[in-house]
Amino acid sequence: MFKNPFLLFLGTAILLRIFSFFPTVINHDESTYIVIADGLLRGQTYWVDSIDIKPVGIFLIYAALLKMGAGSIFMLRFFTAIWVAGTAYFLYRAKMAMGSDDRAARASGMMYLFMCSLFTFYGVSPNTELYYALFNAIALWLILAFPRGALGALVAGLCLGAGFMIKYTVAFDALALGLILGLSYLSPGANYGRLLGQWILLVLGFLVLPLATFFTYRVWGLEEAFLHYTFGVGGAYPAELSLGNRALFLLDFLLRFLPIALCFGWGLVKKTKPWLIASIWVVLVLLAINVQGKPFGHYFIQMMLPFALLAGEFFARDAPRPVWVAFLFQFKYGAAALAVLFLLNLFFAKKRLPGQTGSCP
Fold first, then answer.
1. What are the pLDDT digits (tens) for 314-355?
2. pTM, whole model, 2 decimals?
3. In terms of Cα–Cα distance, which of 131, 163, 108, 103 is closest to 274?
């Protein structure tokens, strides 16, 4: 099992999230996905018969699951565990593509799983961020695995466009990955014409699904509804957080995931392999989080990919780690530390089990 990284991530995701498979109460976001998806299957039109400010993508995913018979909460949550395992796997593939060793790549995938599976409002309850993260991870892998390839840029754009149709803040991820694509050209004599061509293909791929959706609504005579709920309502979403509260919001995230945050900070200081990629991505994701102006923990799921991408380098075989942490890399101590983390997760999960929806972790 441990030789296959996907099986490792899948098993870990199921273990970490297993108590979330049996909630007595689901949150309002998940119930909204199910209700609107069911309406779509019964012939309703989104933004006419049912209305939300999100793009249609998340409801199409849930409609597909309902159509396949995965309509129970157990099956929907189980599918989410498979989905986040897939995200961790493509994060692993992206790190391998950039030249990280296998241990660092697996560590990044595991960190992502722990981050999005520990706290109720930071990934345990299914949110749009969990779903579009997979498309972001695939796009990152394509850009790093095929840095000069035209097809890779086009397909990466398609993936980012699919994520954009789940939540519009993916535009910030797309900008970050576009800049990351250009990093491979920061050398004397680079072919900037090829880079421009790749950027054009990335943008064209990104626009395919949004434009297809727009023209579909236009053919239906619902162009005004599309524009109103895409730009009018979304643009009027109020930003309520003061600068001080925004800082506290970020601090809350960093303290919740302090060990991983410390590994991330170490990677920045030591300028390990993906430090520039992660820095660009995190800055733009922080902008995405702040423009939304709400203190919702699940917004930070968007930052977990670049965070784990860099933090995993702490576990690389040749990493210049502090001497005092060397004991954690002995099997018995490392296994004990992981066991403690699993037990803590189960403790929090059991507290979530009755369907608590207040300000719990």
1. 999 888 877 666 666 665 666 676 677 666 655 655 554 433
2. 0.91
3. 108
Q: What would you measure as the largest C-alpha separation in the chain, in angstroms? A: 66
CA atoms within 13 A on the CB side of 112: 35
pLDDT tens for each residue of 269-320: 999 889 999 999 999 999 999 988 788 899 999 999 999 999 999 999 888 8
Query: Which residue from 304, 216, 186, 219 is spatially nearest to 256, judged by alpha carbons?
Result: 304
Instruction: List all residues 6 or more positions away from 87 whose beta carbon is below 8 Å from its beta carbon.
Output: 112, 130, 133, 134, 137, 305
Q: DSSP code of 126?
A: -
Token readout for 157 is 């754009």
Listed in sequence order, the residues at least 6 apart from 32 whose beta carbon sits closer than 8 Å to its beta carbon are 52
- Structural tokens at position 180: 């990351």
CB atoms within 10 A of CB 305: 28
